[in-house]
Specification:
Elements (H helix, E strand, L loop, with lengths): L1 H54 L3 H12 L8 H31 L7 H24 L3 H25 L2 H8 L4 H5 L18 H21 L3 H8 L2 H10 L1 H22 L9 H34 L7 H16 L1 H9 L3 H52 L7 H24 L5 H19 L5 H12 L7 H11 L3
Helix pairs in contact: 1-4, 1-5, 1-6, 1-8, 1-10, 1-11, 2-3, 2-4, 2-8, 2-11, 3-4, 4-6, 5-6, 8-15, 9-10, 9-15, 11-12, 11-13, 11-14, 12-13, 12-16, 12-17, 13-15, 14-15, 16-17, 18-19
Length: 496
């Protein structure tokens, strides 16, 4: 548990930098490009992610799991797997890149608006895929520090570059600036390639390919049909400005989602390492669910309490129509974040078929809900559809774990966390009512955090043993003068 929690905390530290930088990029795009321009950038990014999910053919997921398992077989057992996987990955990625670049050049030569948008998208696609593969190898080898460092460096570098690109080039320049986010991890790929190792097709076993195909199908459906499929439906039924409103409405919910996605590789590696001849990791599963809820619930519920005041302040008054939908998307981030844990459990136990079935049901439901709710309710309807879909998906994943004979859910601990997070949200919301506008927001955040900290101690959400583990891990990562304060803060949250 300590190693998994340590990797998770390391990921969280880098993710905080990434989230701040990504948030600044979203604000820059909204302020500089307006609703229509920022919506175009967000739509192009959705296309990039969808293309990547199709073109990567499941190799990053396969490499993450296989390299983690190969570490037990010997020091260099992972090298042939990485070399062969990259060789097999490149043809499909190259083809997709050429298609996107050709479309971008046609778009540029035809004199269409925002001429650099798809050229920038093609280059960003290439960096995105290679960075994902590199990060999967690094995490599989246990090099979480490398991924954290490259994530933080790329995130910080992209902010000024995106600003310059948006100002001088427009939406296409903003996309080219976002390319900077992934370059450090792309350059790190060379450290995980042993050129002395031949690209032997036998390095990838039939079982690896079965897992890859299963995860590829599941991820492609999940990303293309579940992750922001609203862009397609909103763009079809509504106007360009509505796409921009939607992009602003999902920014803060996306931040919560990125936090939990950064945790999932650590959970997956930890769970996979315990499947070889050992008892089911009930304790790890319970703690993963409980600790994920510990930060996802206050972020989602507390964030929903203040976000209607936050949206127009951050993005400008012209984005106020996005405020109502943003509340719903923040609430939907809670079940979406919790779903990371049962997903990781099923993936580690080779239950790709179950994941595929859950994904298909969820995708079908979300699409049907969107087709009904978006024409009737606009982006507010899209938010309602997202809440229903995420809740169902989380429930189906928990059922799949149970059917597989997996651990039970710590419902009592989750309910106590929900009570604490709901109190946090009520305190924050009441503050925004009494002190509306910019002045009330920091007060609402502070009061909500204090209420949650007190409730965490009252309800026993963090045990003394867990507090000691956290203190032990942060001892070497916090400056000496701050260590007593850090120990004190952690101990205050723990129950006696």
């Amino acid at each position: 548990m300590t190693s998994v929690l340590g990797s998770s905390l390391l990921n969280l530290a880098a993710t905080l930098v990434s989230l701040v930088a990504g948030f600044l990029v979203s604000v820059i795009n909204a302020r500089v490009l307006g609703p229509a321009g920022s919506g175009l950038v967000a739509y192009a990014m959705w296309v990039i992610v969808c293309m990547a999910a199709v073109a990567d053919r499941g190799f990053p997921q396969m490499v993450l799991r296989s390299v983690a398992a190969a570490r037990e077989a010997g020091q260099d057992a992972w090298a042939p797997i990485v070399r062969r996987a990259l060789s097999a990955l490149l043809p499909s990625v190259t083809l997709a890149f050429v298609i996107m670049l050709a479309f971008g050049l046609y778009h540029r030569l035809s004199g269409a608006p925002a001429p650099w948008i798809w050229i920038g998208a093609s280059l960003l696609f290439l960096a995105y895929v290679l960075a994902a593969f590199s990060a999967a190898v690094a995490r599989g080898r246990g090099h979480f520090g490398e991924v954290a460092a490259t994530t933080a460096a790329g995130s910080l570098l992209q902010v000024p570059v995106v600003f310059a690109g948006a100002v001088f080039v427009g939406p296409g320049g903003a996309l080219l600036g976002m390319l900077t986010r992934y370059l450090p991890q792309v350059f790190s790929l060379s450290h995980h390639l042993d050129r002395r190792t031949p690209s032997d097709s036998a390095a990838l076993t039939p079982e690896m390919h079965r897992y890859r195909r299963s995860m590829w199908t599941t991820d492609a459906i999940d990303i293309v049909l579940l992750t922001r499929i609203e862009f397609l439906v909103v763009g079809y039924f509504l106007g360009d400005a509505d796409v921009g409103y939607f992009a602003a409405a999902v920014v803060f919910a996306g931040l919560v989602g990125q936090l939990t996605l950064q945790l999932s590789p650590a959970f997956l590696v930890g769970l996979a390492a315990r499947t070889a001849g050992e008892a089911p990791p009930d304790t790890l599963y319970h703690n993963s669910l409980r600790l994920t809820a510990l930060f996802v619930m206050p972020l989602g519920i507390g964030g929903a309490a203040i976000i209607s005041e936050l949206i127009p302040i951050v993005f400008g008054e012209e984005f106020r129509p996005a405020a109502g939908a943003a509340v719903l998307f923040m609430l939907a981030s809670v079940p979406a974040g919790l779903a990371v844990v049962p997903w990781a459990y099923l993936a580690a136990h080779e239950q790709g078929g179950r994941l595929l079935r859950v994904t298909l049901v969820s995708a079908a439901l979300l699409f049907l809900l969107l087709v009904v709710t978006v024409p009737a309710g606009g982006i507010l309807g899209a938010g309602a559809a997202r809440i229903l879909s995420e809740g169902l998906t989380f429930g189906l994943l928990l059922m799949a774990v149970s059917i597989h004979g997996g651990p039970t859910v710590p419902w009592e601990a989750l309910f106590r966390t929900l009570l604490a997070a709901s109190g946090c949200g009520l305190a924050a919301f009441a503050t925004t009512i009494l002190l509306p506008g910019l002045i009330g927001l920091p007060v609402a955040v502070i009061l909500g955090a204090l209420f949650y900290a007190g409730a965490a101690r009252l309800f026993g959400l963090i045990t003394i043993e867990e507090a000691r583990r956290i203190v032990d891990m942060i001892e070497g990562k916090v400056p000496g003068r701050l260590r007593p304060l850090a120990r004190r803060l952690v101990s205050l949250l723990a129950s006696n």
